[in-house]
# Entry
Amino acid sequence: MLALRILGTLALLIVLSMLIFLLLYLAPGDLVKNLLGIRNTSPEMIAQVRAQYGLDLPLHEQYLAWLGGVVSGDFGTSIRNQTPVGALLLDRLGVTLLLSGLAFALAVVVAVPLGAASAFRQGGALDRGISGFSILGLSAPSFAVGLLLLYVFAVALRWFPIYGVGDGLADTLWHLMLPAATIAIGLGAILVKLTRTATLRELTSDYVTFARARGLTRAQVVRLVLRNAAIPVVTGAGLVLTFMVGSTVLVETVFALPGVGMLLQESVLFKDVPVVQALTLAIAAVIAVIALAVDLLYLLLDPRVRHRELAS
Amino acid sequence: MSAALTRSGVVAGALGGRGRAGRTARRWPAASVAVSLTLLALAVLAVLLSPVVSEQALAQDIMLARLPIGTPEHLLGTDELGRDVLLLSVAGSASSLVGPFCIALGSAVLGLLLGSLAGYHRGVTDAVIGRWSDLLLALPVVLVAIVVAGVFGGGYWWTVALLIVLFSASDIRIVRAAVTEQAALPYVESAQVLGLSSRRIMFGHILPNVLPLAVTNMLLNAAMAIVALSSLSFLGLGVAAGSADWGRQLADGRAIMADNPAALFAPALLIIAVACAINVVGDWLLPRLTIGGRR
# Structure
């Protein structure tokens, strides 16, 4: 079963890599001109590009050569500034990792306790307030929220810097606080909903009624409920990481943060296809690995599933 | 995929967005539903007015650039090019809302068609359509849209068509699940015994039972499509520079927010308000469409 799941993930990644490889060919316009970008061209340069990208080889050989390069860490060369894509990516990765880490931590710390609390007091003022907030967080696009926060807290109140990443850890964290909060609002809305639904489901289970009837203290019942509700919350929290990918691109653009998302946006607008290909494939791989890890985590956390899996 | 390893229904349901079949509707106070319906009516009115005001809204006058909020004759001030923010926002409603509406409608139709085929016929059809939707759901919609719309270029309606395909994946899943559930019921079997054609059973008998789910999902997709399309136009994709569009206005408004914050606030709040209103109305409609709250 587990082997099948891993094979499925691999198959998906291979199909995606083929589609991503074809982007270069499906992009409108002349392939060589696309690869040369908006520079002036000469016949020598065209010949050089044809040789560099192996354009005279059959398509499947080109794909294999490209995939071989990607697997061994060679993502090709950026059209825009003629540097290796891998180095470009590594250069931008730090900001994005820090930003997503901070946003995820903020969302978990705030949303999970709130979601559980609102489930314990279903229909109360807190629950209704959280429901209203979560629909806002779910509906509002991250870039619109980001721009509003940017105006209110950076331009009007001047509590936070308007752009840049700062120097040193403390300063960087301060610079990343507003963008991280922006992502955390969307993420937190999902997590609140998730925690609330999971906790409510446990609260209405028979074992809770039974535990109460047996005379267990409220604290003991709460502990039972929270432990069982944690399973879908933990696996769900892993899955919402993929939600962050889209909003990170937009939020980095709003706050002019030089991260991977900004690199993607710049490369897309410049039609720097090798960079776009590398980024898309890298993101697809990260998402596939997260989905796989979540499934494994689910296996580890839920004893019922674990036993069934081991028995089969 | 092994049954044991698929995520629990709670996760899938509460995650929203994708595969919302198990979503739990909230109860909204009557007032918030009324406000939402009013907002949507105003939005429709703005879309209808849009062609009338667009010529005046797009008229540039550099002499009047960056007027602050509250200027007589320009209540919300003007933008970098001296265009009236209020008029521009009304004119931009068409580009910001008609496309998303088409995306929601198109993906619902596609989802009903392919989802019914997959759920009713099973077998190879189901496997092919199932893998197709798996592939579409493997990456975040916004990411794929940015990459494809960016690399291929193409105008507004190409972007809308792309989003219809991307959004249809979740519709296919939801409709497929519902049709599979219905196909096992006695009324379908009796229709089969009567010798009705499978097309008639699928679209004449099963479809009406699946439609409420598809309609509510369409509303929720509409809210997400507003967000997706405006995200793309904010990044400079799908909408030409200088045209009236909320996402575009936000990108332009970012540069002049110190002079006239309304250039930023008006489109931002409009996107947020309309998307919220659609979600509230969707939640309100769900139990009313499914007869007697039956699932």
